[in-house]
Fold:
Amino acid sequence: MGTVIHLLIAAKTSSRGLAILAVYLVVVIGVFFLLLIRPRQRRRRAQEALLSAIRKGDRVVTIDGMVGTVRQVRDRFVVVEVADHTQVRLLRSAISQVLNDEGTPPAQR
Structure:
């Protein structure tokens, strides 16, 4: 915090200080972008790819923890069988992960 105050005081006294302040702000914004925004975008793209790859017969876990097998796939909805003769119609976005044959999530690449 003290560094920012010193930079603001320096910016008032010289144009060189203003340039230093501008560089400092660009660096802070760049670090903010790299540490917070990029990982969120990457997770969102991975989730979208997972949802678009859902096929009939996949074992899935919903966001509330129900585990079942996909029986039908439609544009926005999937029908998941959660028990014998018990099917639930869900939004695709309610699927959090797809399980492999052993019932565990596949390894991340």
